[in-house]
Predict the structure.
Amino acid sequence: MALRKAVWRIFSAAASLIVMAPPADAQSDAAATPGQLPAVTVNPPEARPRNRPKPPRRLQTARNPSAVQPSVPVPPQVSGGVTSGSASAGPAYMQPTAASAMTISGAEVNARPFSRPGEALEAVPGLIVTQHSGEGKANQYFLRGFNLDHGTDLAIKIDGMPVNMPTHGHGQGYADINFMIPELIQSVNVRKGPYFADVGDFGSAGSLTIDYINRLPKNILETTNGTFGYHRALAAGSTAVGAGTLLAAVEGVKYNGPWDVPDNIRKLNGVLRYSQGTATDGFALSAMAYSNGWNSTDQVAQRAIDQGVIGRFGSLDPTDGGVSSRFSLSSDWAQSSEYGQSKINAYAINSSLRLYNNFTYFLDDPVNGDQFSQMDRRTVYGLDASHAFDVRVGGIETQTRIGLQTRGDDIRVGLFKTLQRETLSTVREDSVREGNVGLWADTTARWTDWLRTTVGIREDYFAGRVLSDTPANSGSAQASMTSPKAGIVLGPWYKTEFYGNAGYGLHSNDIRGATITVDPIDKVTPQDRVPLLVRSKGAEIGVRTKAVEGLTSSLAVFVLDFDSELLFVGDAGTTEASRPSRRVGMEWTNQYQVLPWVRLDFDLAYTRARFTDLDPAGNFIPGAPAWVAAGGMTFGGERGWFGALRGRYFGPRPLIEDVSVRSQASLIFNARAGYRFDNDLRLQLDVLNLFNAKTNQIEYYYLSRLPGEPIGGVADRHVHPAEPLAVRLTLAGRF
């Protein structure tokens, strides 16, 4: 509560100053990119203070992409490897990376039309971001043959703060990014697989580091209005304050959607940041505040639609929905000298979520129904510190990085049976304190002009205690795990590099599962415990080339093993530890700059996902997509017409282990057209689901019971339909 009050006070003290003040540098106006707010590009960095020793040239690369202030307009781009991008500190030529690693600019993210903030991340090749409930809930993520539910095994950071929540009320690794403001994105750093020493929990399938800008070239006011009651307003600006820059942004959203029971989303979101210095010698202090409330039409039984009980956009429990909030304070500090580069990120987060869901209707309780409520309230404190330094050993240039990451969660989490959002009984309620410490180091060596290698190691320690309303389920748990990593880069030859990576990783399980002994419902039935930490291991080989002028193409082939899969449980709305698994797949990514104002891209991913133990139920992993593809075109310049056309294919998935039931495939197109006027006004029209595809965002298969059906329920598909064709008109101005 104290953190929330502090954040609101900071916003109220600075809001009027920012909105009305002139920008920090009104004369600098970086080029806009097709479909993107011009404000996403930023001004050149300030000069390094003269009284500081200048660091070695090799360490002048940005400590954090959010602080990089390019000196020239930045077009949409995806970079990595031979295309000069890097996912971590240090010079590009020293970076041990992977064929699938890349940095995506904020310009590229915002050039794409999308219906919700999470969909902006579909700029990441092979990533599907969808929804099975109301828009205030965390998205559903799919990557590398994983149904990642709401975030398990996809580590997401925004502005240095982790988004994934362990031991969460709605699922392990819950990652709600509805507080993200896409127009503030400076870059998205993408890394996939457990090959990187500075990535720990939840990062085995991939990790996304989303960094915000420090300064806007001009203040912006924007309003968007569209079908199904969509309204969004954004105000953002920056101004010089003392020796630094103060940036503020406020966003408000209202939306009903096509649902028979309107979503009635009421979102308010804000960012306030003060920064000084440069990327390598400076600091930033940030405050964020987010609040949301909504109704939700969860996935519904297909038979209810087929029988005419409800329409395609109908609800079987109109009281489902939720409320959530997030308040945070964070700081970033960096310093470079002849001894190397140090950086420290510290943060405090206060978040809360209350969900009401009914996935099975009248299966468990034929009288009151099966609606349940999940509550999660927590305060998170964390620190991420690292130091990088260069050493020449026997004539070999090396860069070594060492780091410490620590995090503590103080959690109140509960599960309750409800009727129309009124509590009937408590299934379980727990007080949890959980923490972890990660120590990591890696060394990159450039052996020749065409060979560089990296070796790294990570040690993670997790511990916590559960105080449960069922004493038998109280207890403590702790575990540690060591994870070695390695990588090699060969080339470039003819603008082509070859990559090899391998490493061990982990994911944590809900600590309540590590201390449980009896069923929390009947307090008697014995329950098996799960390990607190689960091992993952993977490898990848690949190639990236720019041999064809204007074309950047990469191909990666990977394998990823888990000692225990995390699966979604439909009747509980959460995840549980399951069987060991293996995924083997490939990703092919292409970007082609046809003309300075026309860009094409195409991504294709295939994964074979299977359980690796023997079980009569079958070895297919429910929800694991085999094929994912996306492609499109963006066009336009600094002034005049601009636009985009994009298509996304989400292949069929097995819904049960013997693959006797499969989901539909979906193919959805979005389009954008707009005009930038000389007076800094922008008019933009987005058309979502351009061809009005009648498909589903998500599908599950499990037992549920409608009134009058057999007491044991009926196994059926449960679907959340894709929203029909929608249009949104944006008017934006800069001043």
About this structure: DSSP finds four helices and 36 strands in the chain.
